[in-house]
Structure formats: C-alpha cells, structure tokens
C-alpha cells in the first residue's frame, strides 16, 4: 500500500491553502513550499510536485467526468427509461457500493456525511427502480386483463352469431382460452 503524502498529512488548514494555490494555477513549486513553511508546515519541493501532479490529474479526470455526465444527464432527461438511464442508475449504485466498501477498509477515506449521502442516493435509486417495476407490472396486468376481456367479448360475439348455446360458449372460454366468467 502506498505511503500517505506528506502534503496530505499537513494540518487541514495548510492543505486547503495548498489546494487553493494549485487550483488558482499561478503559484510555482517554490511559492507553494514557502506557503507551507509560512503556515508552520514542512514539505519538500519534490513532495509538492508529486502532490500537485496528482491533484491536477484528479482535476482533469473530474472535468472529463463532469463533461460526460452532463451529456448523459441530458440524454437521461430526454428519456429516463432508455439504456443510458438504466446504465446511469447502475453506475451510481456501483460507485456508491465501491466507495462504501473502500471506506470500510480505510475509515479516513470517506467522510461520514458523504457515506450518508451515498446511502440516500442508493436508496432513492432503488426506490425508483421498485416503483418503476411496480408500475410496469401493473401495466402488464392491466393489458392482460383487457386482452382477456376482449377475448371473452369476441368468443361471445362469434358464439352468439353462430347461435351456440351459452353452455358451449362457457366451455370454449374455459378450455380453449382458460377464461372464466362471461356475458351470457
């Protein structure tokens, strides 16, 4: 396992100042080292360089992810039931579970508030999935009931036109279509 960066081990106030200096992009390595020392911390120029490199790489990945997420979100809004919508929901759940698993291995890796947010997000997605599944099941049941009613009507209509007796119609519905109940 990799050793924790000396920059990450700094006082949170100092680390926040380093992050701000890197984000602004105007500070040189020497400026950042001087900033750290001026705030009572200690770090080498090479440690600052490694930290800045990782920080900038993370920012680049974050910006790229934001861009892709923006495109996917637009497509998701256009059609939430699309493949992209289902994929996004699964990706969020996977990311949340991976983050929570990582937090279990290293409790300092994730803030408790972030874990709570992830848990709420997973619950919201799961609840949405359950509601969608219930609505789809109800729609299928309604469609089946309508089809069965239409079949009963068709059997009755044709049977009456052929002057079949009601008992014969009942038997056709039950044995051929598996439908019980009817208009006589």
Description:
The structure is a single chain. The chain is mostly helical and 184 residues long. The protein has six helices and no strands. The protein has helices spanning 12-24, 29-38, 45-78, 83-105, 112-161, 166-177. Helix 4 runs antiparallel to helix 5. The radius of gyration is 32 Å and the shape is rod-shaped. It starts with 11 loop residues before the first helix and ends in a 7-residue tail after the last helix.
Core attributes:
184 residues, mainly alpha, rod-shaped
Q: Short summary of the structure?
A:
The protein has six helices and no strands. It is mainly alpha-helical.
What is the helix/strand order? Answer: HHHHHH
Please report the distance between the alpha carbons of the first and last residues: 79 Å
Question: How can the largest sheet be summarized?
Answer: none
Helix content: over 70%
Task: Please tell me what the overall shape is.
Answer: rod-shaped
